Amino acid sequence: QAFFCLLLCVPWGSSCPPSCQCTEWAGAKAVLCSSRHLEEIPKDIPKDAVFLKLDANSITRIPSNAFRHLSHLEELDLSRNAIEKIDRAAFKGVAAGLRTLDLSSNRIRSIPKEALLALNAKLRLANNPWHCECALQEVLWEARLDPDSVQDITCHTAPREEYVGKPLLQVLDAGVNFCSVRQRTTDIAMFITMFGWFTMVIVYVICYVRHNREDTCKHVDYLKSLPSTQGHAE
């Protein structure tokens, strides 16, 4: 915060979004859009921005390619918004260079793992109403999370009531594996489907045999009802 306060003292002569303030410090371009009542990400952010603060606004969604033109971006702060949806390609174009991504204190319940696992940035995901599931577990295992905020990634909802309100890391340390639960559910669904098809085949075979048996009995009764050849000869 002190760093960004210093940036405010240095004017930036290039173009800047009207709702933001742009500054420069030691050759680094910073775009400061904190607490500007923004409902979406500004589209005219300078391409050479290195720091971008969009915190404390009313942004609800991060669409695909939202920052693709910001190839120099290193730090992105989206904390304290109302973000509920993050598209799979939300951070496409900045994945390689981004060092810090703050998504804390939003309304995020779930997030496509593809949106985060491609990032090398240190992630802050604390204080969101997370639904604890396999995708979130994979993010926790594979992404670079800020160690100071990991304990604040809490299960707001979960497959079992006993996990609600607990830090996800604590639940996983207890031996819970949300991905295996999903796999087991899938296996059960496949078993039920296969059993249903097998039952249908058995029923069809039984009906087919009964139908043929009835036709055979009718044919035999018909033959019995015909006058015999010997009777005609006499």
Automatic annotation (TrEMBL):
Residues 1-22 form the signal peptide. The chain crosses the membrane at residues 188-209. The keyword tRNA-binding does not apply. Pfam families: LRR_1, LRR_8, LRRNT. InterPro entries: Leu-rich_rpt, Leu-rich_rpt_typical-subtyp, LRR_dom_sf, LRR_TM_domain-containing, LRRNT. It is a single-pass membrane protein. It is found in: Membrane. Its main location: membrane. GO terms for cellular component: plasma membrane. Residues 15-51 form the LRRNT domain. The keyword Repeat applies. It comes from the Eukaryota. Keywords: Leucine-rich repeat, Membrane, Repeat, Signal, Transmembrane, Transmembrane helix. Belongs to the LRRC3 family. This is Leucine-rich repeat-containing protein 3. It comes from Burhinus bistriatus. The gene is Lrrc3.
